[in-house]
Here is the input.
Amino acid sequence: MSLKHALLGLLAEGPASGYELTKRFELSLANVWSAKHSQIYPELRKMAAEGWLVAGEEGSRGRKEYVITDDGRAELRRWLVEVRPERAGRNESMLRVFFLWTLDPAEAVAYLEREAAAAHAYVERLTALDALVAWDESGADFMGRLALEEGLLIAQVQAEWAEWAAEQIRSGRDATTLTGRRRRPPTKRQR
Amino acid sequence: MSLKHALLGLLAEGPASGYELTKRFELSLANVWSAKHSQIYPELRKMAAEGWLVAGEEGSRGRKEYVITDDGRAELRRWLVEVRPERAGRNESMLRVFFLWTLDPAEAVAYLEREAAAAHAYVERLTALDALVAWDESGADFMGRLALEEGLLIAQVQAEWAEWAAEQIRSGRDATTLTGRRRRPPTKRQR
DNA sequence: GTAAACATGTAACAAGTTACATGATTGT
DNA sequence: ACAATCATGTAACTTGTTACATGTTTAC
Here is the structure.
C-alpha cells in the first residue's frame, strides 16, 4: 500500500517518468523502500486512473512524464497525517539472530562479525553519500539529511550491538553450548 | 523466502503445531517477522513435502504437530551460514520522513513527536517483556536476550533521533526555508 | 449453555520479484 | 559499428493479507 504514497512523495518534488522514479528507488530510497520498474509502471497508470497523477506528453524514446495533481497532493497529505504508520517491519538480519543458537558458537560469532562489518560498510556508504550529494536548501533535502542521519545512527548501533553480541558469545560459552550470563550492551554512542 | 526458515528455526526448539507457531509469530517474533495462520498452514505442508518436517499424530481438536527432520536442520544451517542476509528492508516510518517536507513544519514536528512517543512505548514494551519472560539458560533464550537488546538499542536511538529531528525543524524553520519552498518548481534530479 | 480459546483450513485478492521482450538515443 | 544507457512494457510466479468457514475443548 505504501508504493503509491512513495510515488506521490517523489512526484511532489516535481514531474518525473517511471524510469526516473525507478532510479530514485535504487538510489536515495533504496534503504527504506524498494520497487522495480515492473511494479512502478502499472502502478503509475492506476494512480493516473484514480486522478492522483496526469500523464504528460510523450518525450523522446517514448518517455512518459507524470505530474502530481491536487488530488494526489491531498492523498499524500492524508496518508502522512492521518494514516498510522505500519511499524511492524520485517528484518531478516534480526530474525536470524533468534536462530543462531542452533549453530556452533564459532559460527554464530562469525555471523555476527559479518553483520558488524556490513553495518560498518553501510555507515561508510552513507557518509560518502552525504559528502557526495549536492544538498540544496529545499525542504526535501533538509528532510533527506534528517533521514540520512537516522540511517547512520541505526547502522552505528547495529555495528556496536553485533560486536558486543559476538563478544558475549565468545566469553559466555563452554565447549559446545551457548549459555551464560548477561551483560549490558554499550548504551552510549559518540558521534 | 524467509518464512520457511523462520518456521524451521522455531521448530528447531521443539515440535509444534501450526497454531502454536502462529502464536510465536505474534509474540516473540512480532518485531522482526510476521505471518498469519493462513500462510503458515499451507507452508508447513509444503515443507513436509520437501522432507524438512514430519507431521506427527493428530491430537485433540485436530491438532497437528510437526517435527523438524535432519534435512530440515541442515537446511536451516545452510540458510544461516551460506545464504547472504537480505539487508534491504522496507521501513514505512523512515520512508515517510522523506516526504515530511510536504507538510507544514508544525505537522512535521507532530509526526516526529508521535514517532518518538511510539519508540518510547516500544522501549517500555520490550523492557516489560524482558522482565516478564522466564529466561532459562538455553541457547535459544540466550539469543532471545541478545535480540531483545538489539531491539531496545534501536528503539532508543529512534526515539532520540525523532526528538532531535523535531527540534531541528522547530529551530530551523526560518533558517532552512522548510516553509514557502514546499512547491518549488521541478529542478534537475538524478545524481 | 455459552463464551473464549483452541485448532485448522480455503478462496480471493494485493503486493512484489524475476524473466522476457522491445526499441530509441548517445557516446566512442 | 557497438556498447551503454534510456525508456517502457508484459507474463509468470511467489509472497503476504483479508475474509470466509468450520469444528472442538475448557472454564464459568
In short: Strands of chain B lie at 16-17, 53-58, 64-68. The longest helix of chain B spans residues 139-172. Chain B has two domains: 2-82, 92-172. Confidence is low (pLDDT under 50) at residues 174-191 of chain B.
